[in-house]
Amino acid sequence: MSPSAPASDASSTSPGGSAFADLAAFVALPRLGGLALSADGSRLAVSVQTLDPEGKKWQSALWEVDPAGNRPARRLTRSAPGESSPVWSPDGSLLFTSARPEPGAKEQTEPKAGLWSLPGDGGEARLVLTRPGGISGVAVATGTGEVVVAAATMPGGSDARADEQRRTRRTDAGVSAILHETYPVRYWDHDLGPASPHLFWAGRLPVDEPATGADPVELRDLTPDAVPPSGADGSFTLSPDGRLLARVEEVPDGPAARRDRVVLMDTADGSTRPLVDDPSADVFAPAFSPDGSALVCVRQAMSTYAEPPDHTLLLVEVADGAVRELTEGFDRWPSAPQFSADGTAVYFLADDDGRHAVFRVPVDGGPPLRLTGDGAYSDLQVARDGSALYALRSAYDSPPVPVRLDPETPLQDPPALPAPGTLDRLPGTLHEVAATASDGTRVQSWLVLPEGASVETPAPLVLWVHGGPLMSWNSWSWRWCPWVLAARGYAVLLPNPALSQGFGQDFVRRGWGEWGGAPYTDLMAAVDAVEQRPDIDASRTAAMGGSFGGYMANWIATQTDRFRAIVTHASLWDLDSFTGTTDLAYYWQQEWGDPLREPKRYEQNSPHRYADAIRTPMLVIHGDRDFRVPVGEALRLWYDLQKRGVPSRFLYFPDENHWVLTPGNSQIWYATVLAFLAEHVLGEAWQRPELL
Ligand SMILES: CSCC[C@H](NC=O)C(=O)N[C@@H](C)C(=O)N[C@@H](CO)C(=O)O
After folding, report:
1. For the CA atoms of 168, 174, 180, 185, what is the dihedral angle to 10 degrees?
2. For ligand 1, is residue 479 a contact (CB within 6 Å)?
3. Region labeled Disordered — which residues (predicted)?
4. Arithmetic mean of pLDDT, 668-675
5. Is the CB of 467 under 6 A from ligand 1?
6. Tens digit of pLDDT for each residue in 325-348?
7. CB of residue 471 inside a 6 A radius of ligand 1
8. What confidence tier does 212 reach under pLDDT thresholds 50, 70, 90?
C-alpha cells in the first residue's frame, strides 16, 4: 500500500507512529470530515475535529484547503461549540451551522445551532438565521444563491415565537413526555418527536450586516404538515435556479413500516408531486443535473425473506417523471450520485473488492468506469468547470485526507492535498490477503502487521469483525482503529466475509438470513489462512467486533474455543428481542421474518440459544443510549455469562449510544480492550484501567 503523503502544513502535522501507542495522543489526532467546493472551484473547505482545550470533547472547525495543492491549509473558523455543514454560496460566502453565541448576546443554557455566514472577502462570520430548535441542515441553489434550511419544529405551527412558547411551556411544566401514534419512535441515538424537521425557504440571504432593528430573514415553511416520524430529513436539494426542491419523504409502508420516496416541490407555491414513488423500493439521495432538467437518485430494492436488498441508480426527467436505470447489470451498490459538470455523466461511489471507489457512468448508456484505485472515497465534489473532482480519501493506512482527481482517468491513486491530519508514520504495515471458503469462494481481508512481526517473533492475532453486516472493511476508522492494537504488538485481521459489500450480489445472498452460516465459516477460513503465516502466532488469538460484528463475536463464542478472548461491543445476543426493540424493527424483520410465525432463522442463528457452549472469556461493552442495538442485549448477555460462570467483564457506558463519542470514554474503551487482551492473549496480569 502507498504510504501517506507528507503533510506540508507543519503546524497541523501529527506524529502518526507514536500517537497509536499513547491513547491521549491518539484521541488528539485531527479528524477530517465534510468537504465543500465553492461554485467557481477556487476554494475548498473541510471540517476538522480536534480536542477542545480541556480535552473533554472533540470540536470541529472549518479549514480552507488549496485545491491546487500549493498552499498550506488555513483555519477559517474558531469557536468553542465548533462549526459544521459547510456550504458555499455563489457570492463566495461560506455558510455553516454553529451553536456559537452571537457577539454580545446573552449566554444560552442549551445553545442551538444557527446558520452563520463567513464573507468571501474575509471579515468576521455573522449569524444570519436562528430557529428555536436550531438549524440542522442547509441547501443552496448553485445558480441563484437562494437558501433552504431544515429546522426541528414543534407541532401546531411554524411561527418561531409560537414554537419557542411551546418549548418553554413544556420546560416550565417539567414535561419531557412524547405521545406516539405511529412507528418508529427512535432513531440511532435520539427520540423522534415531539418536534419534527421542517424545511424553510430563506431566499437570498442579505450580503451585509442588517441595520439595527431591521427584520431578520423571513422564513417560509415549505413543509407545514410535517409530523414525526416523517417529514424532511437531512436529504434535500435545490435545483440550480432555486425553483424546485427535491427531497426524500418517508411514507407509511404497511403497518409499522416506512419507506423513502423522492418528491419535487415548486418553491414558489409549495405545490408538491411524488417524483419517484416505488412501493417495492426506497428511493433517496437525489441530485439535480446542471441544467435542472433531470435528477439522479439511488433506488434500493427492499429486501425480503428470500432476497437481500439491491441498489441501482435512476435517471429521472423532471418534466414528466420518466425514469431510466443508469447502472443496470452493474453488480455493486452505487451511492452518493452527482452529475458531471456538463451533465453527460454521473459520478458515484460504491464498495468494490475491499475499496470504496469513485465511478463514472455515461448518462447515454455504457458501463461504469472505476476512477480510483486503492482507498475509500467520500464527500465527492464536482468542479463546475469540469476540470476536477475533489473528495476525502482514506484507507486502512491513511485517515481521511482531501484529494484532487481527474474526472476521467481510471484507477487513480492521488496524493493528499496539504491539510491537517496527515500522518507521518504508522506502527506497522498493511497487507491485502485472501482465503478460500469451503465452497471455493474467495474471502478478501486486510491484515495489519505490527512492527517487528517475523518468523522469530510471530505476532499474536486479533480477528476484528466489521458491522452492518451489509458493509465492508475498506476505510479508516477512528472507532475501530487496528493501529492502536498494532502499536502493542498485535496483528489485526479485518476480513470481508459473506454479506460484505463490494463482492457482488451472490456474495450477499450466501449469508442472507444465515448469519451463523457462511459469514461465520468465511471468517474462520480467513483466520485459518493467516494462521499459516510464520509471522503470526496461532496459539495467541482473540476475536472482537461491534454491532453486527458484536453479534458475530457472540456467535463465535458459542461455536468455537479456538480464541483466548472475545470482545463484544454493542452486540446482538437474542435476535428475537433485538429485531423487536431496535429502532427500525421492520428493516430486520424483512430478513428474519416474524419470530412468532417464522421462528426457524431465529432458532438457528441466535447466539443466546447456544450460551451453554461458551468457554471463552468475554468482555461485554455497551452504551445505555444505544437505540440501534438496545442495551437489553448486553444486559441479558451479561446475565447469561455470569450465571454460567464464564470469566467476563462488562464495560458499561451510561451516557454513550451506539458509538463512543467523547475522548475520555474512547480512551477508556481502548484501554479496557487492551487490558483484557493483554490478560488473556498475552497472559499478563489483569490491570484495571485506573479511572474505572
Ligand atoms: C436499520 S438500517 C440498518 C443499518 C445497518 N445495517 C447495514 O448493513 C446497521 O445499523 N447495522 C447495525 C446492527 C450495525 O452493525 N452497525 C454497524 C454499521 O453501522 C456499526 O458499526 O455500528
Report:
1. 90
2. no
3. 69-118
4. 98
5. yes
6. 999 999 999 999 999 999 999 999
7. yes
8. low
pLDDT at position 252 is 93
CB 547 less than 6 A from any atom of ligand 1? yes
Predicted confidence band of residue 61 (pLDDT cuts 50, 70, 90)? very high
Contacts of residues 157-164 at CB distance under 8 Å and 24 or more positions apart, as own/partner, are: 158/198, 158/200, 158/219, 158/221, 158/224, 160/131, 160/132, 160/219, 163/131, 163/132, 163/133, 164/132
For residue 361, give the amino acid letter.
V
Q: Any idea which residue has 419470530 for its cell?
A: 595
Query: Is residue 159 classed as helix, strand or coil in its secondary structure?
Result: coil
DSSP bridge partners of 461: 491, 541
Interatomic CA distance for residues 549 and 570, integer angstroms:
9
Q: Has residue 183 got a pLDDT over 60?
A: yes
Query: For a pocket test of ligand 1, which of 475, 547, 589 has the largest count of ligand atoms closer than 8 A to its C-beta?
Result: 547
Q: Calculate how far, in angstroms, residue 355's C-alpha sits from the geometric centre of ligand 1.
A: 18
What fold does the segment set 428-680 form as a domain?
Rossmann fold (3.40.50)
- Give tens-digit pLDDT for 439-459: 999 999 999 999 999 999 999
* CB of 628 sitting under 6 A from ligand 1: yes
Q: What is the rounded CA–CA span in Å between residue 327 and residue 469?
A: 23
Domain residue ranges of the chain, discontinuous segments joined by +: 428-680
Q: How many residues does the chain have?
A: 692
Q: From the CB of 510, is ligand 1 less than 6 Å away?
A: no
Could you tell me how far CA 558 lies from the centroid of its own chain?
Answer: 30
Is the CB of residue 195 less than 8 Å from the CB of residue 170? no
Residue 351 Cα to chain centre, angstroms: 14
